[in-house]
Each structure stands twice: as structure tokens, then as C-alpha cells.
Design goal:
The complex is a heterotrimer of chains A (146), B (112) and C (177). By secondary structure, chain A is mainly α. Chain A has one domain. Helix content of chain A is 70%, strand content 0%. Chain B has a single domain, classed as Helix Hairpins (Orthogonal Bundle), CATH 1.10.287. The radius of gyration of chain B is 20 Å and the shape is elongated. Chain C has eight helices and no strands. In chain C, helix 1 packs antiparallel against helix 2 and helix 7 packs across helix 8. The chains are: A mainly alpha (146), B mainly alpha (112), C mainly alpha (177). At the B-C interface, helix 1, helix 2 and helix 3 of B face helix 1, helix 2, helix 3, helix 4 and helix 7 of C.
Chain lengths: 146, 112, 177
């Protein structure tokens, strides 16, 4: 797939980073404001997809990116399970998904115990999963056209 | 009550697409429409008149919230829907590469 | 509020019908966008900002993937021929739709009317929810605390679906070393 015109590329350079930061904001504030791991992960994936579409697929070494995002996806779900097992070990009750960290004051950024950590793990997983699926389709198209 | 009926009518439109269309892409679109209508139905059932979104904040005196349970279910279901749609589309373009068409009846004839 | 929802739902149904009947696949996919973005507005009206935030991004990515798929293939819709049995099929489907709507109406008669949802089941999630989970956003609290197993299951399904995409789309087998 070829890239787009100079105007689109320039606008993408400006917008892309802001979108990425917005996704991280949504993930980190998931326990305070609307959003969370699912929404923020989808927004981060959207920022990468915007970059790939605007600059064309030959700009990036897509095979390598696909391997990386696939590893990231697997590690996201692994972190999720590890936190759950930590709750089982440290929490004392012997059950999955125990909130073992102290819950500070409601409404502050650092509160709610392990819920922000779950948000981050799910955010990584969703973002990497969507990027991997998109990259797989793109690589397939390029190989077929070639 | 008419809102529920309209939602289920949207479901029926998607079912019509899945059952009667010959094009694989149209079938995928029909499945996605069915999924959307079910999501909307769950959220409609959990709505309470005059309530706000279930988010606590200091400046909201209103303690009446909509039901957070269907929202949590649907939130995960939306992302899963995207992943399954991508899987269906991947299978569709593999079929296109092998047979050169999206027409399911023609694919059935070619298979033999 | 209710009237606005009805208008949006009518728009979504119109978009769905047009999308399924369009001659060109590209216009079909774009009309399918009407359904998704209408759903975003419906979620906002129904006080579900989390869902609206997810849905608007997911819809955009779905449209991009769909357009990427159909760009390199035949874009014309295949014509359906009218045969002898077509009238029978139409009558049968009308009967089915009537039956379905009738049964649906009977079964949802037991539900409470729109906007008067009985909160008996969700009281234990709402009232002590913030103190128990420590999360100000109650939806996040439900997802990751009360219903953690569900989220784990959904994450596994997402993972499996992406593995499926990678497997289906691999052209060459991996070289054995």
C-alpha cells in the first residue's frame, strides 16, 4: 500500500502523538472517568493504524512489527493472569482477583488498589491485538499483490 | 415498548442479510448488525429515567444511577465483536484468493 | 428523549437495509457505518459514555479493515434471480417475522417498561460498590472486581481470535530450522 500526500503525512505527524497520549490518559484514568483498558487500547491501536495508513506499508518493516505486537499481546494477557494469581497468593483468602493493594481515597489518581494495573494490562492486550490483526491483513495484501 | 420492537426489527434485518445474501461481505455485515442490535437491547433494558452514568464525582448530588451491570458486559462484547469480525474477514479474503469470488453458491459448485 | 431514540433507531434500520441492498460493496460498507455511529449516539443518550467511547473507535477500525479487504476484490454485488419459488420464500419469511415479533412481544411483556428498570439485582453493585472496589467509575469496578472471570474470558477470546487471524492469513509455512 502506498502512502498518501504530503498534507496528510504532515497532519498525521501532529495528530498521531496526541492520539497516543490521549489513549494512555484514558487507560490510566480508567477508574475515575469514562473509559478504561478497552477504550484506551482501541484508541492506541487507532493511532498506530492512522500512522500506517498515512505513510504506507513499505515505510515500516511490517514483518518485524507484527512479531513485536504479537509478543506484546501475549504478555498483556500474561500480566493480567499474574496479577490475578498474586491476589490469590498475597490476598490471603485463596481466591482469584483479590484486591490486595490498599485502596486509598476514592477519586484520587492512585486509588482502587489493583484496578489500575488490570486496566493497564487489558489496555496493552487490546491495543496489541487490534494492531496485530490489522498488520496481518496488510501483510497478506502486500504479499498477494506482489 | 416500541423501542424494544424497533431494536428486534434491526436484529431481523441482520438475520435477513445473513440468510438471503450470496456475498460473503454482506453476510459479515449482517452478523455485525445482529451483534449491534443485541448490545443496544441490553443497554436499553438497564436504563432508568432521570438517572446519570454510573460514575461517582463530588459535584453530582444525584444518587440515581443507571444499571452498571449490562454496561460492563457490553463493553467487553464490543471489542470481542471487532476481533471476530476481523477473523471472518480474514477467512473471506482467503476464500477469495482460492476461488476468485465472494459468491457462496459459486464456491459450493467449484468445490466438487 | 424517547422520540429521539426512535428517530435514531429508524435511521439505523434504514442504514442497515440500504447496506444489505446496495449494488456496490463500497457503498454497502459506508452505509454500514451509519448503523455503528448511530449506536454511538444511542449509547450517549442512554447514559453509557464508556460504551460510546469504545464503540466510536471500534466502528472506525472496523470500517478501515472492511475497506482494506474489499479494495482488491470485485466490488459489485451479485444479482439474485427471481425464480418460481421466490414468492413462497417471501411469504414464508413474512410469516416468520410476524411470529417472531409476536413471541418477542409476549416475552418482553414480562420486562419492566422502558426507563423503569427494577434495580433489585444491581443494588449490591451500586450502593457499596465504590467503597468495596475503591473505583469511582462503577463500570470499571464491576469489570475488574466483581466480574473478573468474565474479563479474563473475554481477553482469552480476543487473544484466540487474533491467533486465528494470523493462522488463516499466513501464506507460506514457517521454515523448519
Amino acid at each position: 500500500m502506498k502512502g498518501m500526500t504530503v498534507i496528510v503525512k504532515k497532519v498525521t505527524q501532529i495528530i498521531c502523538g496526541i492520539t497516543f497520549l490521549y489513549g494512555i490518559y484514558i487507560i490510566i484514568h480508567g477508574h475515575l472517568t469514562p473509559g478504561g483498558g478497552f477504550a484506551g487500547g482501541a484508541i492506541i491501536a487507532g493511532s498506530f493504524i492512522l500512522l500506517i495508513i498515512a505513510f504506507g506499508s513499505e515505510f515500516l518493516a511490517l514483518k518485524k512489527e507484527e512479531t513485536g505486537s504479537s509478543i506484546l499481546e501475549s504478555s498483556g494477557i500474561l500480566i493480567f493472569i499474574i496479577i490475578a494469581i498474586l491476589g490469590m497468593v498475597i490476598g490471603g483468602a485463596g481466591i482469584f482477583f483479590v484486591n490486595f493493594l490498599p485502596k486509598w481515597e476514592i477519586g484520587k489518581l492512585i486509588s482502587a488498589g489493583v484496578i489500575p494495573l488490570y486496566n493497564i494490562a487489558v489496555g496493552i492486550e487490546v491495543a496489541a491485538a487490534l494492531i496485530t490483526a490489522f498488520l496481518a491483513l496488510l501483510i497478506y495484501r502486500d504479499e498477494v499483490l506482489k | 415498548m416500541i423501542i424494544y420492537i424497533l431494536t428486534i426489527f434491526l436484529f431481523l434485518v441482520g438475520l435477513y442479510g445473513v440468510l438471503s445474501k450470496r456475498n460473503l461481505i454482506k453476510i459479515v455485515i449482517g452478523l455485525a448488525i445482529m451483534e449491534y442490535s443485541v448490545n443496544l437491547f441490553l443497554i436499553l433494558v438497564g436504563y432508568v429515567k432521570g438517572a446519570t452514568a454510573p460514575i461517582l464525582s463530588s459535584d453530582v448530588a444525584n444518587k440515581l444511577f443507571v444499571d452498571p451491570l449490562p454496561q460492563a458486559m457490553v463493553l467487553t462484547a464490543i471489542v470481542i465483536g471487532l476481533a471476530t469480525t476481523a477473523l471472518l474477514l480474514a477467512i473471506a479474503i482467503r476464500i477469495y484468493k482460492k476461488y476468485g469470488t465472494f459468491d457462496i453458491r459459486e464456491i459450493k459448485n467449484l468445490k466438487g | 428523549m424517547e422520540i429521539l431514540l426512535i428517530v435514531i433507531l429508524a435511521l439505523m434500520i434504514g442504514g442497515a437495509i440500504f447496506s444489505l441492498e446496495a449494488k456496490d460493496l463500497l457503498s454497502a460498507v459506508i452505509a454500514y457505518g451509519i448503523v455503528g455511529f448511530g449506536l454511538v449516539i444511542a449509547f450517549l443518550l442512554l447514559q453509557a459514555p464508556d460504551l460510546a467511547l469504545v464503540q466510536i473507535v471500534v466502528e472506525t477500525i472496523t470500517l478501515i479493515i472492511m475497506i482494506a479487504v474489499i479494495m482488491n476484490s470485485t466490488q459489485e454485488e451479485l444479482k439474485t434471480k427471481w425464480g418460481n419459488k421466490t414468492v413462497v420464500y417471501i411469504v414464508l419469511s413474512l410469516v416468520f417475522i410476524g411470529l417472531f415479533l409476536y413471541i418477542f412481544n409476549r416475552t418482553t411483556g414480562a420486562l419492566s417498561r422502558f426507563g423503569e428498570h427494577a434495580m433489585r439485582m444491581s443494588k449490591p453493585y451500586l450502593d457499596p460498590g465504590a467503597e468495596k472496589t475503591g473505583s469511582a467509575n462503577l463500570v470499571t469496578g464491576v469489570i475488574f472486581d466483581y466480574r473478573g472471570y468474565d474479563t479474563l474470558g473475554e481477553a482469552t477470546v480476543l487473544f484466540t481470535a487474533v491467533i486465528g487471524v494470523l493462522t488463516v492469513l499466513r501464506l507460506k509455512g514457517r521454515k523448519s530450522e
